[in-house]
């Protein structure tokens, strides 16, 4: 079961992980090199031991598929998961003249007055992204992040090419999409954590393996499991294939020091059966719209909130 594999990873990190410092200053407990395998015929691996917002998973994946890199599309679909990186660019710019937002990710958690200011500034920022095209173009864009690399890696539409290769040459060992572009890493708001994925066709079943160089196990990895499983399901549907496995290989798999209590709470919960998907008929993944994909029969334990490290 998907939850059990994920909770085993959490247990492994808590029991055997090494304390490491990191760029955020929060610190992590970390292991290196870990793999999980999810049989996509057994249900859609949206974790049930805490609620995972499927709309956020799907709208972000569709954003990647479109090749978009501006948070405006995400905000239009009530998705706030990339806001902090765009907001950081804005408050560090010469044009920003509001309250000092230095280290907002940490200070908003420990200072009630600062948190109020932060929420006000973030609300104003989001409003301008949605309604001021010039501002949105300048401060809503995250640089050459995932969508850019999937659809225009130095002029190559990797995602479109790999879908065509699956249809015409399914035995290829080159069914690969890379988000890690050394020439453009410095132009990204956040270098790609899920850095490369490969498809594999066997017995008319499509499988996918993701290599993730860095995994925030509590906040990020549940989204990654669902996102790449969904991508595999959608591409299999377009290519007339059944689904196989999603294989998730992690490099630095870590739990932030301020997530330990939340992880332990999740580990104490009993999983529910996995949900399924309802997908409208479509010809190409590039034509999909938000309303075309829905999760059904999703029963889960409540959300568990935790701070994001920026």
Automatic annotation (TrEMBL):
The keyword Methyltransferase applies. InterPro entries: Thymidate_synth/dCMP_Mease, Thymidate_synth/dCMP_Mease_dom, Thymidate_synth/dCMP_Mease_sf, Thymidylate_synthase, Thymidylate_synthase_AS. Keywords: Cytoplasm, Methyltransferase, Nucleotide biosynthesis, Transferase. It catalyses: dUMP + (6R)-5,10-methylene-5,6,7,8-tetrahydrofolate = 7,8-dihydrofolate + dTMP. CDD domains: TS_Pyrimidine_HMase. Pathway: Pyrimidine metabolism; dTTP biosynthesis. DUMP binds at residues 23, 173-174, 213-216, 224, 254-256. It is an enzyme of class 2 (transferase). GO terms for cellular component: cytosol. Its EC number is 2.1.1.45. Belongs to the thymidylate synthase family. Bacterial-type ThyA subfamily. HAMAP family: Thymidy_synth_bact (MF_00008). This is Thymidylate synthase. It comes from Gemella bergeri ATCC 700627. The lineage of its organism: Bacteria, Bacillati, Bacillota, Bacilli, Bacillales. The gene is thyA.
């Amino acid at each position: 079961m998907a939850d059990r594999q994920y909770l085993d990873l959490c247990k492994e990190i808590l029991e055997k992980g090494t304390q490491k410092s990191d760029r955020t200053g929060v610190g992590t407990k970390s292991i290196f090199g870990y793999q999980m395998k999810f049989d996509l015929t057994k249900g859609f691996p949206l974790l049930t031991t805490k609620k995972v917002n499927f709309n956020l998973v799907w709208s972000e994946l569709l954003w990647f598929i479109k090749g978009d890199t501006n948070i405006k599309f995400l905000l239009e679909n009530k998705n706030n998961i990339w806001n902090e990186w765009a907001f950081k660019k804005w408050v560090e710019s010469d044009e920003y003249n509001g309250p000092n937002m230095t280290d907002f990710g940490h200070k908003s958690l420990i200072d009630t007055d600062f948190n109020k200011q932060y929420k006000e500034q973030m609300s104003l920022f989001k409003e301008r992204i949605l309604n001021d095209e010039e501002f949105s173009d300048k401060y809503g864009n995250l640089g050459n992040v995932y969508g850019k690399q999937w659809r225009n890696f130095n002029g190559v539409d990797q995602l479109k090419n790999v879908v065509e290769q699956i249809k015409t040459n399914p035995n290829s060992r080159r069914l690969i999409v890379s988000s890690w572009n050394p020439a453009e890493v410095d132009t990204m708001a956040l270098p790609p954590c899920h850095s490369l994925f490969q498809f594999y066709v066997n017995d008319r079943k499509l499988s996918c393996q993701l290599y993730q160089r860095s995994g925030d196990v509590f906040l990020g990895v549940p989204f990654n499991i669902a996102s790449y499983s969904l991508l595999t399901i959608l591409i299999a549907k377009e290519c007339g294939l059944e689904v196989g496995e999603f294989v998730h290989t992690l490099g630095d798999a870590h739990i932030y020091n301020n997530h330990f209590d939340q992880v332990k709470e999740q580990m104490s919960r009993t999983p529910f059966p996995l949900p399924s998907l309802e997908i409208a008929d479509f010809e190409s993944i590039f034509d999909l719209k938000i309303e075309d994909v829905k999760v059904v029969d999703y029963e889960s334990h409540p959300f568990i909130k935790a701070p994001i490290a920026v």
